[in-house]
Prior knowledge:
A: four-stranded antiparallel β-sheet; disordered N terminus
Amino acid sequence: MRIGLPGFLSRGKKDGMKPRFRDTLKMIPIFTDLTRRELAAVERILHHREYHAGEVIFRQAEPGLGMYIIESGRVTIRAEESTDSVSELGDGEFFGELPLLDGGTRSATAIAKTPCRIYGFFQPDLFGLIERNPRLGVKIVMSLAAIIGMRLRAANERVESLLRRSAERGTATAKRRSGRR
Amino acid sequence: MTPSSVRLNRWMVWGGLGIILLLGILVPGVMKMVVLSLLLAYIFDPIVTAIELRGFTRTVSTLFFFAVVISILVILVSFLAPVVVTQLRALQEGAASEETAGIILRMQAFLRSELGFLGLRDLDLAARINELSASLSGWIMNYIVHEGLSLIVFSVAVPFIVFFLLKDGREMKKSFISIVPNRYFEFALDLVYKMDVQLGNYLRSQFIDALTFGVLATIALWLLDVKYFMFIGAFAGAANLVPYVGPIAGALPAVAVSLFSTGDAMKAVQVIAAFTCLKLLDDVVIQPLLVARGVNLHPLLVLLAIIVGGELFGILGMLLAVPATGFSKVVLQESIVTLKKYRLTD
Lengths: 181, 346
């Protein structure tokens, strides 16, 4: 049970976060359910980075440590084997969130298309936050799990629809063959 | 943070590091203070974090921790001061007491008769002990007079540095990491985090082990009615930080004191048995419980570290040499493992 504390003793009063960026954070699904005080606690563990146009943020297959939130600028995400960009992201969007949970390797390369101001949210800092404020930590991890779950469900549906389409194509081909006979 | 504030932050971090390094080179005492403060901050960090867990700010948590520590110290001092004063007096008068003089005479007679062939026929043990005692007291007085001021500065500065390391350590780490170029940023963060965990575990387990051993040794010596049990127990705990030679060095004063104060060999045997049991308990129960202690250091490395520590920073340097070497080994090990993981070639 947490002790109720007078404001000047409790965390999150002196957050110093820019209102615009706080709004940006609030828009990100992982942080949507957080209160202003909790957002301030998250802001304190974010790492501010600046990238010039063309600079690599991370490379595919490299070990990953966490996710990035774009404050301003544009970032291209692409798979190394193809030159086509998988997607292009802009202000307030985020990428590379999977390593935040599993600490695995990056599945694509991220490159700054224009000069970018980016905030990094990394696993060691998330662990520290969970240690100091488990309630907030669980909220973030649950939101992350929900996002991953949603993606898994979407991927399953896509696989199912592909399988269905391939089965339908197989049946149609078989019917055509039997019709010819 | 604007680009200019990022640049300012970088300058401040590099400037701060430069000043500490320069002071460390110019004034060796500063380096000793910083190293000791860093070790203490690592040991106490989880306690402050546990207080923070109750919803307090880091500053309030650190202040609360210091208030508790100071209260405990005040209580300990008020309870133990009479015992310490009695033991100090006994230590001063020890060599002059009739009982001790009798023991010395008996030992002198024994050495003259049994080891006379070694040239000890004319040995004046009492005079030799008095000479040694006089030179030792002279050395202690000289040390107090010359080092008194720096001791006061040390005992004020170390808690002061520890306070700020505990309060702002996280921000300091963040500022330090912020100066790393983008390409190596995640690698640096990963490395710092792993080192933090490993070092924290290692130093805390060392501290808990030394504290437990010291308390147990003090209790054992008190039960065996050995004089100056508090000093010897505390020394044995601190000496236990040094592998191999530490436990022996910790037991030697206890054996010597019990032998000289009573002249009873059985008493010395009891003390040896007590220290052997304590060391066994330490090896079989305490150390396996403190899993992270396993930073294996080669005996030769330990010996070299103690010599270098002693040469540079005296007795405190000798005691801190092993944890500091363990610290360096963890840093090196984690750097290699993380470098391999990231395979940073360009």
